[in-house]
Amino acid sequence: MLKYIQNSFLFLVLILVVSCAEDPTPKPNAYLRLSYPEANYNEVNLDVPFTFQKNEFATQVGVKKMGGLDNYGVNIEYSNLKGTIFLTYKSIHKDSTSLVEFMRDAQNFTQKHTIIADEIVEQVYLNDERKVYGMFYEIGGNAASQSQFYVTDSVNHFLTGSLYFYAKPNYDSILPAAKYLEKDIKQIMESVTWK
């Protein structure tokens, strides 16, 4: 038994000597470093009533004719980021109520995120030269979409857009990609030209 106690004591002394050699230093926090390519924009001229510029980083652009006379869906896919910018175009009918309805629907669609969103920041967009007027929404928090917008010429054209990722909303995780694609959405808004 005495030999067992001596061995245990020797073992403890050895651990203390080895562990006390240096002062422990805490490791710095690690942050995920994500880098995306610098955006290069090219004009997209599809068989729809408007043109716009998209980032070359987008992997695919799809067009779908939707219900109605001149209604289209355009999907701009970013497979590397697991996200898509969805555009929906609607032609404004001659009666003035359709523009009001379209704007109300776009605003209500964004406001549905207030249940989950931490904040919704609105930015007005006006371009009298190209007759493009609208609103950009930046949505903070674990909402399904982090960016949404609408633009119109107030007479014939109405375009909405929203960003979605193929993942459960986790704002901290998708924030770098959301900020990168926010610039692409603003470029779409700023480059829209009606045909």
Automatic annotation (TrEMBL):
PROSITE patterns: PROKAR_LIPOPROTEIN (PS51257)
InterPro entries per UniProt: GldD-like
NCBIfam families for this protein: GldD_lipo (TIGR03512)
Keyword Lyase found: no
Pfam families reported in the protein's UniProt record: GldD_lipo
The entry's keywords: Lipoprotein, Signal
Segment forming the signal sequence: 1-21
Record keyword Chloroplast present: no
Organism: Formosa undariae
Full protein name: Gliding motility lipoprotein GldD
Sequence intervals crossing the membrane: none
